[in-house]
Amino acid sequence: MAGGFHDGSRSLQDRFDTRGLADRIDERLVSDAIDNNDRAFIQERDMFFLATADAQGRPTCSYKGGEPGFVRVLNPRTRAVPNYDGNGMYLSAGNIMVNPDVGLLFIDFERGRRLRLEGTASISDADPLLGDYPEAQFAVRVSTRAVYPNCPRYIHRYTLTQASRFVPHAGTLTPVPEWKRSDWAADVLPEHDPARDPGQRDVLGR
Hints:
Elements: H1 7-15, H2 19-28, H3 36-44, E1 47-53, E2 59-65, E3 72-75, E4 78-83, H4 91-98, E5 101-108, E6 113-124, E7 138-149, E8 176-177, H5 183-186, E9 203-204
Parallel strand pairs: 8-9
Antiparallel strand pairs: 1-2, 1-5, 3-4, 4-7, 5-6, 6-7
């Protein structure tokens, strides 16, 4: 935000008499930089939601997960995250290639806190951080335009019961997703996809 209210926002603010509240939140809580508290919160997370849109403005939202700390805050205005193997559609990353404006939502479901970050993303398969991320295809860096907390009142409380077994780790064979071994997918997998011949890798449903 930081002055990013448009006619749509203003019309609803005026309809429900929240313009003063919105301006106060924008003034006091919205920043163009990630402070130390926000940095700690972001780097403690093991997941976030990524919103992107294509060149025509058609949006999509995706879930991104990894080990706690897989999102790095490099400086007050830059954060980075690896892109791991997925379903091969590259909807979010493809959108970034044609429209770099992104939104990120970080949520702590146990303590009830959430943080929104908006900015401009870029993709690099030569990012120096890739050495820290086993099996990452490329890194996505986001230059921050706005970062701000959201009201936590509607966050349902959840606890982690099991971390994903598919998150890559150095020195460990990452399991193969069972769906890639299905008849409908197996013959169109990339040439070097380990699902073609799992060998000693586990094949897991989820």
